[in-house]
Known about the structure:
- By secondary structure, this protein is α+β, with helices and mostly antiparallel strands.
- It folds into 2 domains: about 5-120, no CATH class; about 125-285, Nucleoside Triphosphate Pyrophosphohydrolase (Alpha-Beta Complex), CATH 3.90.79.10.
- About 35% of the residues lie in helices and about 30% in strands.
- A hairpin with a 2-residue loop joins strand 2 (about 65-70) and strand 3 (about 75-85).
- Helix 1 (about 5-30) packs antiparallel against helix 3 and helix 3 (about 95-105) crosses helix 4.
Amino acid sequence: MCQTCPSYIETVKRLIRESEAKGEEQEAKDRAAGKDLRNDPLGRMLYLSPVETPREPDVSALLEEVVLIHTPEGQAWTRLTTGETRFLDSRRQWGAFVEAGKILRENLSEKEAIAAIHQLFLFSYGAMGICRRYESDGTPYVLMGIRGAKLATLNVGEATFPAGLAQPNESVERTLLREFEEETGIGVGKVLRYPGYATFRFPNACSMTFTGLLETKTRQPLKTCYEVKGKVFTWVPEKSLQAALNGDNTALVKKFRENDVNVPDNLKVTNDGSATYLQLSAMYPP
């Protein structure tokens, strides 16, 4: 045991080891259930200090970038450093995340606790694209789908937007546009990109989402996606999404069922999708 580490750090490390052991047991159950358990290499993101103005990134063994983040308090430029981890290596640690965060916050300031979390855990991050399309009468639609049951990830069976995890040394922007095209067939030349990202930290996993707002004139995605129930994303009236976030998901459920996607009456929108949509729609109203 490290003689120089505070006891609470050693406690967190022990919780992580125990979670990793339980995670390996869970993988056997998930494989038996037919879930996709590829331990693909992913980007590992570390927050660095906020910056007043952007600068050219220092690209070396790790990718450093400066991104514009939308927050309820306003906008801020933040410098990020990206390393590498693997999905299952990260997922095995999720079981320790809540308790570890509690312990660190009891002993450190919030800023110090967040820094420690990113250092102690194998953090993975993804990018989500919320895409609008306007009908000729000005009615806004957003592209949504249902997260597939074969994924070994969070929020399975809930309504969400095109998204995916970052690859090693891949910028947030590249992840956003690559995943959006891979899942919908709509290429970068057919979308308008609004500046900045909304972010969501998962409260129960060492993972977070960067969400960007897109706009397109393309009416129908051309590509099927195995990660989405029903195989294709659906254009949903934005007012139906807003109603669902206000507690009435009737119209949202009806829209998916009209497109032959079977969803439950109590369909929910993923927590990262709902939180970042609210941030971006406040910044860029439809």
